[in-house]
């Protein structure tokens, strides 16, 4: 009985163990086999991926080899690639090896200089934001254009930079409204200023674009086309003079020309003073616009991303600033006769004018700036006429504004009572010719083409005198400035309106 009882008590856990212990183990084994199965499956996947990767890498390397083969073995590019391959073979970090492979891929491709369109889209977006298009009257600006690719504008500039026949209105139209960028770039290259000033071309381009964007394209005459035109004429005065100007002076003269009329509102100082305009208040009625232009220009340079003088010494910066300010302020026409008189007196006695003396050189540079600023009448008649229409339109708008405000209409600004040809003859006789006469002693014979044009233009305007004034502006100026197919002989002003011909009509 006891034995039975003991046996029963002993057998129970054994049975329990036999029944449940084996079951647990079986379960565990089953689970383990599932895990193993999963692991085997995962391992299969991994090995397959690994195989694919090795194949891909082999393919990529083969492709890479094929491309590298095509590159001249002695070229710096192939040498760089070989060096990179060598570094990759020594490096066991897969991330670094991957990056090196990517670099080799770019270097070995044919698209080394192709712009990444996605990146460019972002850049263009920013450019568009900066050059917000405004309603155009004077200058039509196309922000989508690539200002540096080879096109009609670059060809025109290349062939005409040093010609007195240069037509900046034409350049403005064929460059989609970027004459400052084109002229500026060409002249900075011509005078080797990019390397001398140690600046990046992108910074220079941004500087020109910034200057250009601060001209109001709706102003008929004092817009970026006028700025570029004055700069081109300044170039003629620099290269044709008997003086060998150092790079600092050339830099000052080109910059002064490019920004000398920034943000011009299309109304003159007298109007701003008479109407107590904010600018007149700000600058105490003294050379109101000119002070503003100069202030705006130097404000651009304050921003390091536009500062093309950032690598010059403090002293050079100081002297360039001093020269630019004096040149820009000299464009105030109220000092015109005084300045001419001062310069003529200096030059009259040979011993008194000394280009080595800072004050004398500054005076000469002011004169050059002024001559460039009023140089339109010394261009071929077809070009000069275009500018005349632009300035007259700006004058007439001021006249209308004066009339609307019950102010006396300024001379030459009455749209209905101004004899344009007569005003041009007077301007040539009393303003432009005396200015050229004054600077001629430092130009030997090189002002001859300018004098010839002045003479011819004077004759042509005199012949046009007999016409009623309105016949001189037979078509609207708006049409003239908007005409995308710029026609050089758009209007023949020496004949009556019925004889108006265009190149296309012929
Ligand atoms: Zn000007």
TrEMBL record:
Entry binding sites for Zn(2+) 1: 226, 260-261, 373
UniProt KW keywords: Hydrolase, Metal-binding
Organism name: Rozella allomycis (strain CSF55)
InterPro entries hit by this protein: HD/PDEase_dom, PDEase, PDEase_catalytic_dom, PDEase_catalytic_dom_sf, PDEase_CS
Residue stretches making up the PDEase domain: 121-468
EC number(s) from the headed UniProt entry: 3.1.4.-
Residues binding Zn(2+) 2: 261
Descriptive protein name: Phosphodiesterase
Family from the record: Belongs to the cyclic nucleotide phosphodiesterase family.
Cofactor note: Binds 2 divalent metal cations per subunit. Site 1 may preferentially bind zinc ions, while site 2 has a preference for magnesium and/or manganese ions.
GO-annotated molecular function: 3',5'-cyclic-nucleotide phosphodiesterase activity; metal ion binding
CDD domains: HDc
């Amino acid at each position: 009985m006891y034995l039975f009882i003991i046996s029963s008590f002993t057998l129970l856990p054994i049975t329990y163990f036999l029944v449940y212990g084996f079951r647990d183990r079986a379960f565990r084994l089953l689970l383990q086999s599932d895990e193993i199965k999963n692991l085997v499956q995962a391992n299969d996947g991994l090995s397959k991926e690994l195989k694919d990767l090795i194949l891909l890498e082999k393919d990529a390397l083969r492709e890479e080899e094929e491309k590298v083969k095509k590159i001249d073995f002695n070229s710096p590019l192939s040498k760089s690639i070989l060096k990179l391959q060598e570094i990759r073979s020594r490096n066991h970090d897969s991330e670094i090896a991957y990056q090196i492979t990517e670099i080799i891929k770019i270097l070995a491709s044919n698209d080394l200089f192709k712009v990444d369109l996605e990146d460019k889209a972002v850049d263009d977006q920013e450019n568009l934001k900066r050059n917000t298009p405004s309603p155009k009257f004077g200058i039509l600006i196309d922000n989508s254009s690539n200002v540096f690719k080879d096109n009609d504008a670059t060809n025109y500039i290349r062939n005409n930079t040093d010609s007195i026949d240069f037509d900046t209105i034409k350049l403005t139209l064929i460059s989609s409204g970027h004459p400052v960028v084109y002229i500026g770039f060409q002249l900075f290259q011509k005078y080797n200023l990019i390397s001398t000033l140690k600046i990046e071309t992108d910074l220079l381009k941004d500087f020109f674009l910034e200057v250009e964007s601060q001209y109001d394209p709706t102003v008929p005459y004092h817009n970026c086309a006028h700025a570029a035109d004055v700069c081109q004429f300044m170039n003629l005065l620099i290269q044709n003079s008997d003086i060998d100007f150092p790079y600092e002076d050339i830099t000052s003269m080109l910059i002064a020309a490019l920004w000398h009329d920034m943000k011009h509102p299309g109304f003159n100082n007298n109007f701003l003073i008479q109407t107590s305009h904010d600018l007149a208040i700000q600058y105490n009625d003294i050379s109101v616009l000119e002070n503003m232009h100069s202030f705006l220009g130097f404000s651009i340079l304050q921003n390091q991303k536009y500062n093309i003088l950032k690598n010059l010494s403090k002293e050079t910066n100081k002297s360039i600033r001093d020269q630019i300010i004096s040149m820009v302020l000299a464009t105030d026409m109220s000092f015109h006769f005084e300045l001419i008189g001062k310069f003529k007196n200096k030059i009259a006695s040979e011993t008194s004018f000394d280009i080595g003396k800072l004050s004398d050189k500054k005076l000469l540079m002011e004169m050059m700036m002024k001559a460039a600023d009023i140089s339109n009448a010394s261009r071929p008649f077809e070009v000069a006429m275009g500018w005349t229409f632009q300035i007259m339109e700006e004058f007439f708008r001021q006249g209308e504004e004066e009339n609307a405000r019950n102010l006396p209409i300024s001379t030459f600004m009455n749209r209905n009572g101004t004899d344009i040809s007569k005003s041009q003859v007077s301007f040539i006789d009393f303003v432009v010719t005396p200015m050229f006469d004054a600077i001629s002693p430092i130009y030997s014979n090189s002002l001859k083409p300018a004098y010839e044009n002045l003479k011819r233009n004077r004759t042509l305007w005199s012949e046009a005198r007999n016409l009623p004034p309105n016949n001189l502006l037979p078509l609207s100026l708006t049409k003239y400035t908007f005409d995308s197919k710029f026609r050089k002989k758009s209007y023949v002003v020496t004949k009556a309106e019925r004889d108006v011909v265009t190149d296309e009509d012929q």
